[in-house]
Design brief:
275 residues, Spore Coat Polysaccharide Biosynthesis Protein SpsA, Chain A, 8-stranded mixed sheet, 36% helix, globular
């Protein structure tokens, strides 16, 4: 029923935890496509850690550090489920995630949760993508562009597109912009079933990453203004452009803040920032 694509880059210490969160799902009809992007043979690694499961599929990009967008694209042709989602190798799912999201994804074409961010080292919560929720929300593109934290939807397979070549930083943002452009809104539950771990050294939390986000935002804004616009409708091109301009301003403010406030994570900083 559900295929989960997991890019794996230097994931020896965390992949088992991610996969165990799939094994523990209350809805057991799933497939995981684990894509090695560092030359590690993860089937053997997991087996040596006592974890073998016929629902696990393994492949490789054939390279090292080619990017999670590229790894997701390598995994997509192997996804046999009616619905597709993603899981980073250092994150995990709550056990009810599939059961929570599948009914909404069946009804609306895609559904996401109010993702929970926590510190990897302390296990302390940082916050959720949307904040307090009492009911299902249907996010328009304008609403989505105001979010400063990830949204990880479960998507009906006919709505899934490959990740855009060359878009690595904020590649999930671009993918979700394209998704909302296709289906109108994304349903978001008030549950927090994706556990997003803030870990120093990850792609989004490493030295110099914010300068790479700066270049990425500038490239994407230009592409929306005078390029192919990622295939968006004219109205949504404008909404996406304005939203990315605001995100670039937030990123610039964060770059300035961490010069004197070392150790402050982007997501902690963004909790008090209003676009």
């Amino acid at each position: 029923m559900i295929s989960v694509i997991i890019p794996a880059f230097r994931a020896e210490a965390t992949l088992k935890r991610a996969v165990l969160s799939l094994v523990g799902q209350t809805l057991s009809d799933w497939q995981a496509v684990i894509v090695s992007d560092d030359g590690v043979e993860y089937r053997g690694l997991l087996a040596s850690q006592g974890l073998s499961d016929p629902r696990l599929t393994f492949t490789s990009t054939g390279g090292t550090g080619t990017g999670c967008h590229n790894a997701r694209n390598f995994g997509l042709p192997l996804a046999i489920g009616d619905y597709v989602t993603q899981l980073d190798a250092d994150d995990q799912f709550a056990t009810s995630r599939f059961a929570d999201l599948l009914p909404l994804a069946e009804q609306y074409g895609a559904a996401a949760d109010n993702l929970l961010m926590i510190h990897e080292e302390t296990e302390l919560p940082i916050g959720t993508t949307i904040g307090k929720m009492s009911k299902v929300l249907h996010l328009t593109l304008a609403y989505f562009m105001k979010l400063n934290a990830p949204l990880v939807p479960l998507i009906r397979k006919d709505h899934v597109l490959p990740r855009v070549i060359g878009v690595e930083f904020s590649e999930d943002v671009i993918a979700n912009i394209q998704l909302i452009d296709r289906i109108g809104t994304v349903a978001v539950t008030n549950t927090s079933s994706y556990i997003y771990r803030i870990r120093q050294g990850s792609v989004a939390n490493s030295e110099g990453s914010n300068y790479k986000f700066e270049r990425g935002y500038t490239d994407y804004i230009t592409r929306l203004e005078i390029g192919d616009g990622f295939g968006l409708s004219s109205d949504n091109r404008l909404i996406a452009r304005d939203g990315l301009i605001a995100k670039r301003e937030l990123n610039r403010a964060y770059i300035d803040e961490v010069k004197t406030n070392l150790g402050l994570s982007f997501f902690e900083f963004s909790q008090n920032w209003k676009l």
